[in-house]
Design a protein that fits this description.
Elements: H1 19-46, H2 53-74, H3 84-97, E1 104-107, E2 110-116, E3 120-122, H4 124-140, H5 152-170, H6 175-191, H7 196-215, H8 221-231, H9 240-253, H10 265-268, H11 280-287, H12 289-313, H13 317-341, H14 359-377
Antiparallel strand pairs: 1-2, 2-3
Helix pairs in contact: 1-2, 1-12, 2-14, 3-4, 3-5, 4-5, 4-6, 4-13, 4-14, 5-6, 6-7, 6-13, 9-11, 11-12, 12-13, 12-14, 13-14
GO molecular function, one term: lipid-linked peptidoglycan transporter activity
Organism: Actinobacteria bacterium BACL2 MAG-120802-bin41
EC number: 2.4.99.28
Length: 380
């Protein structure tokens, strides 16, 4: 089936854009705001704290994210190619900064954050996803006349663009982000037309790399316990095993229709740690039930299908590779996050797109949506 996109004369995030994609993202953002409020309201009120603390911050995060997405659509993405080295360099500098004593701060066993006054934190690894995708897209889209696939030299250069940021992220360590970036990198190389041996080699290298990271101690004990609890939930019953068990109970207790917004006993009792961030899907499972959770999955499916349609429709190789990278990133992160809440994937501490509380991830996600809309608007 041929998918076509209509060129628009008026361009912006709200006009001339893929409105189906916009609608799905906006609905997810609204649902996320409500779920974050539901996850934190009662506990904060019971402890004489502001029950709207997380609600207000998440609304601000969403507003800033929408502004970033809009700003990303203003300049033709083909002109952004010239600034790709600066985007990549900025991403690397952020990853270096978190490892500098006095700048970086440790959260849940990973030195992944830069703290600012007022309790604000920024996670450079989130924006590094974009810099890696854009950098790889630039290299893999440079073809000589008559070439239908990147050369081995170009693939090596693309892997070189990925290597330094990945090493810095492993040093934090942030295993979840490493897995997401690795999935995006392999997908981009596979769909760029590169030889099959590159894909097979990268898959093998990825497995070996994870093993070496664990064996060498680069993976923290906190994250290693999370991996062990995936294999055996009883291996760490008071920490990661407890979290997984409570997540399953919370999702399962929602049944078909759920307990109703703000009425989930597991959610209100905060039996699931990090339920407003990495485990936000448990709130949806308990309070919205199977029907509400399925609607969220449907919205994600629409986002991915529209992103795939944009990648397929554009004839510009750079725009196509950027779109493919975003599709791979979004697909794996959604699957990993929801899968880990149900025990189908190991717990790696990755947020759920557009729903989880947090500014860094929200900003990166919305910039990626802006890139997709940019490619859509300029497709002929």
């Amino acid at each position: 089936m041929k998918i076509s996109l209509k060129a628009q004369s008026k361009r912006g995030f709200f006009t001339g854009a893929d409105q189906i994609l916009n609608a799905a993202v906006f609905l997810l953002l609204l649902i996320g705001i409500v779920l974050v409020y539901a996850a934190t309201r009662d506990w904060f009120a019971a402890n004489d704290l502001d029950p709207e603390y997380y609600l207000k911050r998440q609304i601000v995060n969403v507003i800033i994210g929408i502004a970033l997405a809009y700003g990303t659509t203003l300049i033709d993405y083909r002109l952004l190619r010239a600034y790709t080295p600066f985007v990549w360099g900025f991403g690397v500098l952020g990853l270096v900064a978190v490892l500098i004593p006095g700048l970086g701060s440790t959260v849940n066993g990973a030195r992944s954050w830069i703290s600012f006054p007022g309790g604000l934190q920024f996670q450079p690894a989130e924006l590094a996803k974009i810099s890696i995708i854009v950098g790889m897209a630039l290299i893999l889209s440079e073809r000589m006349a008559g070439e239908d696939r990147p050369s081995d030299k170009q693939v090596l250069q693309a892997l070189g663009v990925t290597a330094l940021p990945l090493i810095l992220i492993v040093a934090q360590p942030d295993l979840g982000t490493v897995l997401i970036i690795t999935a995006a990198v392999i997908t981009m190389i596979a769909l760029s037309g590169a030889s099959l041996y590159w894909v097979v080699g990268l898959l093998i290298a990825g497995v070996v790399g994870v093993y070496l990271a664990i064996a060498s101690g680069e993976v923290s004990e906190y994250q290693l316990n999370r991996l062990k609890s995936f294999v055996d939930p009883s291996a760490d019953p008071q920490a990661s095993g407890y979290q997984l068990r409570q997540a399953r109970i919370t999702i399962g207790s929602g049944g078909l229709l759920g307990k109703g917004l703000f009425n989930g006993p597991q959610t209100n009792g905060r039996f699931v740690p990090e339920q407003q961030t990495d485990f936000i899907f448990t709130v949806a499972g308990e309070e919205l039930g199977f029907i509400g959770s399925s609607f969220i999955l449907l919205l994600y499916f629409i986002v991915l299908m529209r992103a795939f349609a944009i990648a397929r429709a554009t004839t510009d190789l750079f725009g196509k590779m950027v779109s493919i990278g975003v599709v791979a990133w979004f697909s794996f992160q959604i699957f990993e996050n929801i899968g880990m809440t149900m025990g189908l994937m190991p717990m790696t501490g990755v947020p759920l797109l557009f729903l989880s509380y947090g500014g860094s991830a929200m900003f990166a996600n919305m910039i990626a949506i802006g890139l997709l809309q940019n490619v859509y608007q300029r497709t002929r």
